[in-house]
Specification:
This protein has 518 residues and is mainly alpha-helical. The two termini are 67 Å apart. It has helices spanning 13-37, 41-52, 63-68, 70-75, 79-100, 106-131, 137-163, 165-200, 210-232, 238-241, 247-267, 269-292, 295-310, 312-327, 331-360, 363-378, 381-392, 396-407, 409-420, 424-432, 437-466, 468-471, 479-488, 492-513. Helix 12 crosses helix 15 and helix 19 (409-420) packs antiparallel against helix 21. It folds into three domains: 13-102 and 167-241, no CATH class; 106-163; 262-513, MetI-like (MetI-like fold, Orthogonal Bundle), CATH 1.10.3720.10.
Length: 518
């Protein structure tokens, strides 16, 4: 260091500036901690400094957090910590209440009362048989002795369970003490993490507002009290065991739904007839191509298509899969399944990709259809199968519609995801060179979004194949019918072989759609 870097008093100006900045930063941090915690700021400043010195977990002890537990965490806004600790403390308090006040032998005594009623009946039958000198005396005698032995065993079990009360209470007390200790140790560490988040986002709640304290205390007290009463005194309070409802509410709801479906069927019969006719026409055309065309033609075309899209090795695998289906007698069923799947997939893709393209640049429209797609994808197939049968009847068109409902959403979601993932810089560059909307869509957006769109098509095909067995319940033929028959008659071999055929169909389609060659 040169002499020019040192002032006449021997102090480095650079070091002096750094120390002043460090002191200013420390003072600012202390003020932020005071603003954040409001209560006991000096305590939290000292502990936050200890925690901040290491990137690892640093154990400290917060007595108030240990005493008040989930209420403290909830009041501080640490609900991700409060709820697990609430469950743990509730479990502990329930065990304590059961051990001290609960009737642990209630279930056993109820079984004894039930057996005693049967025993009284058998004793009367035994007395009548003895008086009548019946040959059933020995049978009734053995029955009475067996029931008496059962009662004795259950009574001994009840006494043993009643004696376990102090042990259960001590176990609950041990769990409670451990939970309190853990909460006291991790409280400051969790709060310091929330303080770090608060520094970058001041909208995060700080301090302990009175309303939050009251809400946390009332919420925890209700949960703990209800659980303790329910498990300590089972069956005594019906409100805790059964939801308060009236059977007429469900009956009324059922009637409303049935009336609505009947009204829709009456007023839209022509529309659904036209829709059914269109689906059946496409399905019949595919069945003519796949089922009635000589097998050697279809097999050759599938192998050739696989070779062109995914390579020679995958084409060899496809040929082996097709040979498996043919040799085991599943060829016609597999082609029928592919026709059904092709109809559903073609319609889903023809509707889904344009719908995704339209929704990609219209967030409001996408937010409108997103709950509908969530409903279509999460509702069990057996549920929406009922209204589909009401509108389309039983048969292959209904199976196509059910398959479309279940498998049609991924292509929409992934088309939207792919188009929204196109870099804005690329789009702006194309626009700056004079690209119109059609050129921008066909030459920029769709090529860049193609991997995501292909993934959506793949997922639609896979989900449609998953509906093969379910669709066979409403008249769809094909491999699903073989699997369904195997389930009905517990024919394990047929079910597994047909299942492998479905798997091989899925693998062939997956390789064609996701092939490496263009």
């Amino acid at each position: 260091m040169s002499t020019s870097d040192v002032n006449p008093h021997g102090v480095n100006p650079l070091e002096d500036t750094e120390s002043e900045a460090a002191l200013a930063y420390a003072e600012e941090r202390r003020e932020n901690i005071r603003t954040f915690v409001r209560t006991s700021p000096d305590y939290y400043i000292a502990n936050f400094d200890r925690i901040g010195e290491s990137s690892r977990f640093t154990a400290t002890f917060n007595l108030m957090a240990g005493i008040f537990g989930p209420v403290w965490f909830g009041a501080r806004g640490l609900w991700t910590w409060a709820l697990p600790f609430l469950i743990l403390e509730t479990l502990a308090l329930v065990q304590i209440a059961r051990g001290l006040f609960g009737d642990l032998a209630a279930d056993a005594m109820a079984r004894i009362a039930s057996i005693e009623g049967t025993l009284d009946l058998r004793r009367r039958q035994l007395e009548a048989a003895i008086e009548a000198n019946s040959d059933k005396v020995d049978v009734y005698t053995r029955t009475v002795e067996s029931l008496e032995a059962n009662i004795g065993g259950i009574r001994a079990e009840a006494e043993a369970m009643a004696a376990e009360g102090p042990g259960i209470a001590l176990t609950g007390l041990a769990i409670l003490v451990v939970a309190k200790a853990i909460q006291a140790v991790v409280a400051n560490w969790a709060l310091e993490g929330r303080f770090s988040d608060w520094l970058s986002d001041r909208t995060i709640r700080s301090a302990m507002p009175v309303r939050e304290i009251v809400f946390s205390a009332v919420f925890m007290a209700l949960i703990v009290t209800a659980a303790m009463i329910h498990y300590s005194f089972p069956g005594r309070f019906s409100l805790l065991s059964e939801f308060p409802t009236d059977p007429n509410i469900r009956l009324t709801g059922i009637q409303w739904v049935e009336d609505f479906i009947a009204w829709c069927v009456r007023n839209s019969e022509a529309f659904f007839d036209v829709l059914t006719f269109g689906i059946r026409g496409l399905l019949d055309a595919l069945e003519v191509i796949l089922v009635q065309t000589p097998w050697i033609v279809i097999a050759s075309l599938i192998v050739l298509l696989t070779w062109l899209t995914a390579g020679i090795r995958t084409a060899i695998y496809s040929g082996a899969f097709l040979s498996y289906m043919g040799l085991l007698g599943f060829w016609e069923a597999a082609m029928t399944t592919l026709a059904l799947l092709g109809t559903a997939a073609c319609l889903s893709i023809a509707i889904g990709i344009p719908l995704g393209m339209f929704a990609a640049r219209r967030p409001r429209f996408y937010s409108f259809i997103q709950p509908i797609m969530d409903f279509m994808q999460t509702m069990p197939a057996f549920v929406f199968m009922v209204p589909v049968i009401a509108f389309f009847g039983v048969g292959k068109p209904a199976a196509v519609v059910v398959t479309m409902i279940f498998g049609g959403t991924p292509v929409v979601r992934l088309t939207v995801l792919g188009l929204r993932g196109v870099p804005e810089s690329v789009r702006e560059a194309a626009i700056s060179f004079g690209a119109n909307k059609w050129y921008l869509l066909t030459k920029v957006d769709l090529p860049l979004a193609a991997p995501s769109i292909r993934a959506g098509i793949n997922q639609t095909i896979m989900l449609s194949l998953a509906m093969v067995v379910v669709a066979s319940l409403i008249g769809a033929k094909g491999l699903g019918e073989d699997v369904l028959e195997a389930l009905q008659y517990a024919n394990v071999g047929q079910g597994i072989l047909a299942g492998f055929s479905i798997l091989f169909c899925a693998m062939i389609l997956d390789r064609i759609v996701q092939g490496q060659r263009k």
